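Reviewer 2 asked us to include a model.

Predict the structure of this chain.
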Amino acid sequence: MIRKALLFAIALFGSYSILLLLPVSSSLHASQHQWQDNLIKAQQFIYSGDPPPHQVIVGSSLSCRLVMDSLPGTYNLSFGGQSIFDGLAILLQQSRLPETVLIEMNVALRKENSDFTYALHNPVLFYPRKWFPALREDRQPLGVMGSKLNQVVTHRILERTKTALGLNAMLPANTIGGELFANSLHIQVQNYSKEPDKKVVETSFLHLKADVDALEKRRVRVVFFEMPVNDTLKNLPEAITIRSAFYTWFSPTAYTYIPSPSQSYRTTDGEHLGQEEALRYTLYLQHYLSSGFSKNPQEQPHP
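Predicted model (structure tokens):
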């Protein structure tokens, strides 16, 4: 009985693995939660087998909002709830690197999530996942089936709701507004108003300097950029301290900084851009990437 069950499981796994090799399987992937979504994004980068992209972005959940369809030749290694050090750790493990790495400045004091990076490079699972896509996070059969079922149910509910309300157009995307937004912004103001611990700043930037030096030794160009946040937060102690630390450790005369846009941006909670604003900043970023980072010296940031 055990033997039959084992043979049946092997047959199912083999059949599913073969299915994933077919072109029709391109839509068979799913993410069930943020942690898994981060793993999927990283695994797709690690196991792609393609030449490295020209540019890679490393950042936090703020940079996750960038609209990558508008940044051709660029891969986004930004992870929700995590920091720039996770993306940098993944990059430095690769045998081939991109020409340019863009590093988000906003969340530079959050440590690398060692559990996350270990899960990606676990020696027991690394090569099996490389050889068998069925073992990767986005290809889990139950997750894929659940995702497809959820899409069907959600679509039917949405259609019924639109019919009941007499709507022909898509319903607008959810946004945070009113009192909820005010409360979220108030919390962010409190967080940004705290002066970061000097030891934490020093430790973080020592780590970042080592990573940047390692990239530059492999002839990678490093560029820094700051994701837009609510205007109220821009000049509070935490933001000022992080910005000043960047200019101290990575002089604007020696490193490239993409200037922060002069226009204000709307956010959903004080920090994260909504869809339209994320697209607007993505196009702004794309302008500098496509122009080879040529810019007016007057636009260079200063401490």
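Residues 7-31, 142-155, 167-175, 295-303 have pLDDT under 50 and may be disordered. The chain is about 50% helix and 5% strand. We have added this to the supplementary material.
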